[in-house]
Every structure is written in C-alpha cells, then in structure tokens.
Design goal:
With 231 residues, this protein is α+β, with helices and mostly antiparallel strands. It has 9 helices and 6 strands, in the order H-H-E-H-E-H-E-H-E-E-H-E-H-H-H. Helix 1 crosses helix 4, helix 2 packs antiparallel against helix 4 and helix 3 crosses helix 4. The C terminus is likely disordered.
C-alpha cells in the first residue's frame, strides 16, 4: 500500500500547519520512540481538547486540525483530524475513519435539535503501528467521562480503541451501526451535505449556546432517578 497519502498534509488533516507542528513537537519531546509519542498525543488530545458538539457544524474550522487546536475544543471529527495530523508530523501514517452510531447518553437540548439519537459520520483515527492499522478515538475528554460515569477510552497502540457499549452503571452508551470507511483527509463536503439532510436545524444554526458538558452531566445523573421512578 502506498502510504504517502497518509503522511502528506491535507486541507483538514493539516499536518504542515505551524501550530500543529509546534503542538506535536512539544507533546512528544523526550519520547523514546514513535509508539510512546503516539500514546502521549492520544491522551493529550483526548483530555486537553474539550469535547464540544455544540460548535457550529457548518464551520470548516471545526473540522480542521489546526482550527480545533486553536479553539481548544472540538467534536469527534475535528479531534480525530488533530490526532491524525499530529501522527503525520512524527512520520506515523494516519487516516480518519467514520461510522454511524447510536448514542444513548446525550444532552436533552442536543437531542431536541438533532431529533434523533443516531449520529452519522462519527469519527475516529486510524494509525499505522507495528505493521497494521489500529483505531483510536480521542473524542471524550477525561473530565467529561468522570462526570457522566464513563471510563475514559484507553489506547495502547496495539488494540482498537472505540467507544464503550455501556457506561459504568451498566446503561447502554454507544452502539455502532454502519461503517463509512477511512479517508486520507476529512471529506468535508460529503459530511456537511449529509448533515444538512439529516440535521437541518443544527446546520442552520451557528452552534448551540451553553455548556454541553454540564448539560450532559445533568441528564446522565438524572437517569438513574428516572429509572428508579419507573420501577
């Protein structure tokens, strides 16, 4: 397989952007090898970039590695692009992958806008390590996971790291439905066209005001009480 496309800078996986290069080098400084460097990048991007699906879904900056880095927050697509771009900076082939998922834990306001608990084009990163492609999902930061009772996703560089099917209370969390494959760069036009067809209200807005992390916490913590009342 020709790996050149998975090492070159893209429009959205913009590994040639100076801020992405600087971020990567400072994060991996002193790492003994590429594998150790990747683990550092994964945990840093997972936890230091706040997960925020309330951002505008029509703004290309929110899909671009350098844009997410500048903002310090992003949803799954932008965070996966940042991990892929950072991997390319250190010479590790990387691409972005997508799947449709059903998310059983989301904020009521986000659900009201989306009008569904199925989310299309959920993104992860694929990294070429030790002669094979492995999946890594840096979307949910540790602070959010702690609040909503989900173990932060770990990545060891050898096994695929995808969303857990259940939270720590045993409630269903994330369910994968359809695989959309992998790409050298974010297919922005295709994704946003599908978003406009599936989530017209969300695409018409400039994002949702408010704090997703606080609202997701409120819903999740309230769920056991609701379940108790139903018994």
């Amino acid at each position: 397989m020709d790996m050149s496309q998975f090492l070159a800078a893209g429009d959205f996986v913009d590994s040639g952007a100076p801020p992405v290069i600087a971020f990567t080098k400072s994060t991996v400084e002193g790492a003994a090898d590429a594998g150790t460097a990747i683990l550092r990048l994964y945990s840093t991007i997972r936890d230091s970039i706040i997960y925020d699906p309330y951002l505008s879904l029509s703004d290309p900056a929110n899909y671009r590695a350098s844009g997410v880095l500048a903002l310090g927050r992003g949803f799954c697509i932008g965070k996966a692009a940042l991990l892929a771009a950072s991997a390319r900076v250190i010479g590790v082939p990387a691409r972005v992958g997508y799947a449709d998922v059903r998310n059983h834990l989301t904020s009521p306001r986000f659900y009201e806008m989306a009008k569904t608990d199925t989310f299309i084009w959920h993104s992860y990163t694929e990294l070429y390590l030790s002669g094979r492609w492995v999946k890594a999902t840096p979307a949910f930061d540790r602070a959010l996971c702690d609040r909503i009772g989900i173990k932060p996703l770990q990545f060891d560089g050898a096994a695929d790291s995808l969303f857990q099917p259940f939270d720590q209370a045993g409630r269903r969390h994330m369910e994968y439905l359809d695989d959309r494959g992998t790409f050298a760069d974010v297919p922005f036009d295709t994704i946003t066209a599908d978003f406009r067809a599936t989530y017209p209200s969300m695409m018409e807005s400039e994002g949702l005001a408010g704090d997703f992390q606080s609202e997701a916490v409120a819903e999740t913590l309230g769920q056991p009480q609701a379940d108790e009342k139903a018994r």
